[in-house]
Queue: 2 jobs
Job 1
Amino acid sequence: MHLNGTARVTPQGVLDIGGVSAPELAGRFGTPLYVYDEGLIREQCRRFHRTLAASGLDYQVSYASKAFTCLALVRLMAAEHMGLDVVSGGELYTALSAGFDPARIHLHGNNKTVAELRQALDAGVGCYVVDSLDEVARLNALAGEYGTWARCLLRVTPGVSAHTHDFIQTGAADSKFGLNLANGQAETALRAMLDAPHLDVLGVHFHIGSQIFGTDGTRAALDRILNWLAGLREQTGFTARVLNIGGGFGIRYTAADQSYPIEDALTEIAGALRAGTQTHGLPLPQLWLEPGRSVVGEAGWTLYEVGTVKEIPGVRNYVSVDGGMSDHIRTALYGANYEVALANRMNDAPQAEYTVAGKLCESGDVIARDKPLPHPQRGDLLAVSCTGAYHFSMSSRYNQMPRPAVVFVGGGEAREVVRRESWADLVRGQE
Ligand SMILES: *Cc1c(COP(=O)(O)O)cnc(C)c1O
């Protein structure tokens, strides 16, 4: 298992994160348990700031809440000078409950409800990412009612989509997000926004995918968008002050994943933005970003207790743990690959391959397939690395599983930032 951040293996063969041993964490807080290396989250934020500051561009980096949010995380983002993206009333409520500056919150979503827009206007949210033509009229009318201007970006689909190592020129208008450049809908929406008296149009936004390595796709999208903006500027005089390139920076889930440092990606993108604006005779806009996974993914761990071990001769070995797809859905959902280890026996040599299964009632309830492990024993502690993004936030109560606790570790201390759900929580509000 490759180790990130402060994680290390003690001479006794025990996994230690943030100066606290995994068995101690499991003993104090129970399992399944989400553990976050707080120092690594902070370091990831600082890498974005350092590189963008060095680029000389005006920039803003906002953390995409959907990857993982809770009060403590929101406060951490505030302390690290990050903005915050929210996509729902619930994410907005969480951000505001943590005391996050509303001016630094951006509201996303392809179907923002009127109630959510009112909640955002009440709070004084700093930016709306407009995602459809009918939202233009709705947001303008509501902002008028509040006697204010809604600062906004238009989300466009540039006809480029990226997935891990590749990007494809789709040209397709088939997306529930954003407005298409090629079919003219983006232009129609932008013109409507410019005409709307209660909208202050800052610029445009795009997000071409997630878990992306390299910048080919982003640079191709930038090129199309700058070309489009140059044409629009000639016709309408509109000059984008902001270009938001979304998130999507890839992380290393396993040692086999290539590493593409944030520093390299940002430097290439900043260079492409400078060159592209020059080519098209445009003033340099602010560069905005909204990373999620790359901020929290590698900092998160899940700890489970080993239960049933089932060896099917000639077929497969299964080791079952006390959680599963209720706290770890990505393997079942899209075959994501994770590294696993026995956290109390890190130096024991692997003896066989085991598929790590959960305890939930689905055959697809698998955490990791065919992984080399020492023969697991009931009571061992199984650690899964890189579970910081889209785990807690995608957790469910399937089989009435209470959601696990979340613990932040660092400097030899552990603090429980989200309490484990109780049985009583499972029936709260029911009659
Ligand atoms: C999901 C999403 C992000 C964050 O993506 P990551 O892959 O977690 O970095 C940013 N912006 C938008 C619009 C998104 O939908």
Note: The chain has two domains: 8-37+297-427, 108-291.
Job 2
Amino acid sequence: MPDPAEVRSRTAILTRGFEPRLSLGSARPAVFRSSTYVFESPEEAEHAFAVVHGHAAAEPNERAALIYSRISHPNAEILEDHLVPLEPGATDALAFNSGMAAIMTAFFTFARPASTIVYTMPLYGGTTALIHTFLEPCGVRGIPVTAGDTKGIAEAIRAAEDPCIVLIETPANPTMIMTDIRSAAEAAHRHPSKPLVMVDNTFLGPVFQHPLKLGADLVLYSATKYLSGFSDLVAGAAISNDPAPIQRMRSRRTMFGNILQPDECWMLDGRLPTVGLRMNRQSKNAQRIAERLARGASVARVIYPSLLDDPEQRRIYSEQCDYPGGIFSLDFHAGKPAAFEFLRRLRIAKNAVSLGGVETLACHPRSTTHSGDSPAELDRAGVTEGLVRVSVGIEDWRDLLADFEQALQPE
Ligand SMILES: *Cc1c(COP(=O)(O)O)cnc(C)c1O
């Protein structure tokens, strides 16, 4: 086998982390659904538990023994070994049974009472709810900062009292506002409390945006979206360039019981070699469609990273992202009735929440994905009544463009 350190990510994902010898020689991984694993001897069992509890050090190059599938199992290990080369700079990864499970486990590993969490606004709705419903009652004060406000975020971090976490979601959902990861990470690393910098990289990662290279400590994913890519499974991931935070999260995952199950690990693992192909096609499709709609459409503003006009937003985009990605939004001047009419008229794109699948989906965030946020929060974040979010799939872009154009035509 080639040394994984010497090959590029697209090769590594097909050559590292899976030994056919351990699966009766099968070329692709088998599914190991066992809940428990047999030891060679009682001494081996004793040593395995001592290593898991941190009472004994593992031998150099020793893999943690398999014990029980809530702790880990072969399909999680194979998947985690394949997530690492996808994220430039990464050394360690963990699989979770949803994106929310990854975010929740990160929060409950690194938050401490009487500390603060600085986060960009808007965040994914479930994450905002988690901060308000669980972190704040546990004594962790939330400090929201408007996405894209580079100076404001650095200042909020500097002034924060004992920050434990800085959480950035960029581009913001569904307004596509970019936040400067490097600048926030520098501010965080200067703070004496050394807050952990987490980036929810679901929208542009792992192909077009690389937070660990920009100073982030932990990258979080809803693997339900681009990583899995077919809108048929729910999963999450946490990836770092430091084994220590991953090790701490691993022990929490064992307590919480939110590891991804073997079948889902196997399915997701099989999707990873094509995530770059799919995301490249989705980004090319979205760019062709968004730029043409922006030229032609007078009824709605098209929001897309390659169409940003604010100079600071353009700077962040050009320094931080390789390509604009597969998601754009339309902001209808005539508000909700126009947005709903557009959704009703679509023939190829389906009206559904979620994103990142091979099929094109469209939704009205204010009445669906973001309906849990207060109207004041939504207004501040730019989630208007007229906003429709589109996740572009891998269909032929000309058919999609024609579908959007006919849906934009007034009767
Ligand atoms: C979907 C999503 C999540 C939550 O992930 P689940 O897999 O649904 O739990 C978190 N963050 C972002 C940006 C998302 O799009």
Note: The mean pLDDT is 94.
